[in-house]
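Proteins fold reproducibly. Take a sample protein:
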Amino acid sequence: MTLTERDLKVIWHPYTQMKTAMPPVPIVRGEGACLFDENGKKYIDAVSSWWVNIHGHAHPYIAQKVSEQLRKLEHVIFAGFTHEGAVELAERLLEILPANQQKVFYSDNGSTAVEVAIKMCLQYWHNKGQNRTKILAFKNAYHGDTFGAMAVSGRSAFTAAFDSLLFDVEFIDLPDKENITNLQSLISNLSHQTACFIFEPLVQGAGGMLMYEARYLDELMAHCRNEGVLMIADEVFTGFGRTGKAFASNHVTEQPDIMCFSKGLTGGTMALGLTTCTQQIYDAFLSDDHLKTLFHGHSFTANPVAIAAALASLDLFSDPSTAENIQRIENAHRQFALKIKDHPKIKTIRQTGTILAMEWQTGTDTSYFNALRDNLYMYFLDAGIILRPLGNIIYILPPYCITDMELAYVYSKIEQALDEI
């Protein structure tokens, strides 16, 4: 029995209609930007396996550090205890994050990092005796699949079964030259009841790689600051170099009160979530009243093995060669975008850092369920490339170690698809 056959007997896959889905591809190993199936076929992982793998698969340095940690300490309860890796990772991250970030709270993944951030903001105002419970978020946002994270994500087919159970959120348009004044007025009108504003800085990933300008986000953030609205930057996707800078928040002058991280945090090696905040947020929970405690935690909070992976990933990220690779990919994307931007099947093409997104003309509105998605997915899979279109939007988001030759091959197959599909 093949691995795929065994899988179909026992596994329920994420984001998958199991009745109609193609059988899963059985991957047995990874190396660099590539994955290999049980038949030896090679696939270029051009989406970094859901955007997590920034240094390449099975990186020997990360593997070494994880192995060493397993022989020293695999886990310890993080309530009332600590360990060296947790302290070191917090220290090192705070050194490179915006200066106002002062405290680190560990969790499990991106969704829970967002849950922590939301609870921090809501309880911040509760601890201060103020009834501020409204939350602002962008339309088409995606912040995760747990209930709080779903609530601050745009309403869609993904949330439809749960909509009546999600708390109300004020969804606003992405800021631009035309609407920035109206958005600022709206925030002013709601500020007395608003706890926080949560946003994906510069790029809305799952929303279709929708991109917007840093200067208008900066203006919106400055206005929130003036109105006393707390700000959460969800950098789960955009953190660790994806936008061309270490963090998307480095593109703006105003800084958030809270930041959320996961995905590239461990180089894609294993799950880890992290939420940082300002001293002001932290201080609002310091009290002789135990009811003002942040009552949140996870069994695997600050898992030493995951943190060892994160520290190793941070070592690699800090190496000058990583910045060079990010710039190399960014330049290659820009050249390819210029080459195909006038193709009649390309509706729009957009880029931020190492993220390149192409929206195909379909004659219908963009939709995650657009039939073109499956055709494109299978076309590239047959060519040995993993591209997972968001409906009729193809995006390239490779590990930083991808070679020029591998990138050129991906580009060439996209051009071929434009001519053939």
About this structure: The longest strand covers residues 346-352.
